[in-house]
């Protein structure tokens, strides 16, 4: 697979490449659509001074806002994917620059519409909302809540103008971890040299040769150490910028701000109670026993006296990692999804047939991530993957296909509800991974041993690793909100304490606290969703098995991810995320998989 990195895109069968003409026929058509969005935003702003006198006026305003989000989603999707597969293209860079300019105009225009809601007499607005059809009433209520945090036109313009400055810490972290990151090359056991980078570290540190893994780890991490003060300063400034936004917008906290995010944008503002996050962290930390035992099992399986950080990613399966050709992986994925019903499998199959997956790493393609799945309400989802013909990347593709199928179902409804809040968006994707691993177990053969390894790897990472990451971000965010100045030493201390709690069997020596370096590209509260995803997916898996949840009911859940309140969505799956019970059940399930070893 290493050879594919230098393969030209045109040399790859079109079947395995994106067909982006499903979104726009060409960049020129994209530019026409961008011009149309600019006109729509101008029209939205020009109506800001008109009062809302009837329910019909309110409905028309909601429709215009919804339409602007629909247009923006499509433009974002195409510019992102076009750039991802043409990383050296000036045309692709130009599209992304144009989109950033559009973004700077988008929020002030939508803000003008939201101000109209806020400035309308509350009783009159109540009456107008009551007159709306059910399919718009919820949208109106969400926009009305957002309107409470919209500021004056001048303030909104200033906030938008400073968007680049607020995002500077993230750009610094990205530049350090990609452009400026330049660790020394290392020699593989077979004598070949490999240049380590952000995109291939995970692959190299899973090599079966332990001494090589150690050299990879130390070489890679020593390069991060050079940037410790820069990365610590950037992360502290990112949290400070978030804290400033909290004050300006009137959120309760950085957590409150992040818990109101949706993916992709639609104008909705779901609100996950902070109590869910507290219950999640408390319950996972009270049930660390299986995770600690997993570390002991790993040490024993590897036959080492001490478990070191370079031992954490290598497979502990009792057989070599088999090659999994892409078409074979596709067949396995479709077979694994059969418990979700024939109609579901048919949709998954069509996703492959419609060229919505860009499967292999190629020249000038983004390769710093194994796979991800952006989407728009009108165009559906696309998966950018870097498939390497092994069990792990097969699992990654299957994971992203979970997001894609979720988008396929919720896009059946109107744009305003065609979204999935981050709190629940990982349930369908992690469920996919569980079903694929269990399919491999049932099939037996070479993949069965690696299926056990994958179950421990992704469930341990999502349930426990993400809880540790969420605890880290939460502790630092609350420290900034309390006025504490975050130094590199302070951040190092927090991370070392958490490693001692979550990974007591791993010997890090003096670099434990610096293993956080490289975090910070995503919003501060981004890890919690994986804990909730793993927890919810395990409940769904159990309920499908026992028949208390039918495939049709699960598909209805996917259709409605943007149309119900978050806690109601969890309740529909039989998950009370405010209690310790589902997290305890998830820990028990992880312990059960651990027994397989």
What does this molecule look like?
The protein has helices at residues 27-46, 55-84, 90-119, 122-131, 134-147, 153-161, 163-166, 168-177, 201-204, 210-226, 228-249, 254-258, 274-286, 289-302, 326-336, 342-353, 391-410, 426-443, 446-481, 488-502, 528-546, 551-559, 566-572, 581-595, and strands at residues 186-187, 193-194, 262-263, 357-358, 371-372, 375-376, 380-381, 383-385, 420-421. With 597 residues, the protein is mainly α. Among the domains are: 2-149, Oligopeptidase f, N-terminal domain (Butyryl-CoA Dehydrogenase, subunit A, domain 3, Up-down Bundle), CATH 1.20.140.70; 272-322 and 420-597, Orthogonal Bundle (Neurolysin, domain 3). Helix 2 packs antiparallel against helix 3, helix 11 crosses helix 19 (446-481) and helix 16 crosses helix 17. The protein is globular, with a radius of gyration of 24 Å. The two termini are 30 Å apart.
Number of strands: 9
Kindly provide the radius of gyration, computed on alpha-carbon positions and rounded to a whole number of angstroms. 24 Å
CATH first level of one domain: Mainly Alpha
Q: Strand order, main sheet: write it out.
A: 4-8-5
Which topology of one domain does CATH recognise?
A: Neurolysin, domain 3
Throw out a few tags for this protein.
597 residues, mainly alpha, globular, 3-stranded mixed β-sheet, Butyryl-CoA Dehydrogenase, subunit A, domain 3, single chain, two-stranded antiparallel sheet, Neurolysin, domain 3
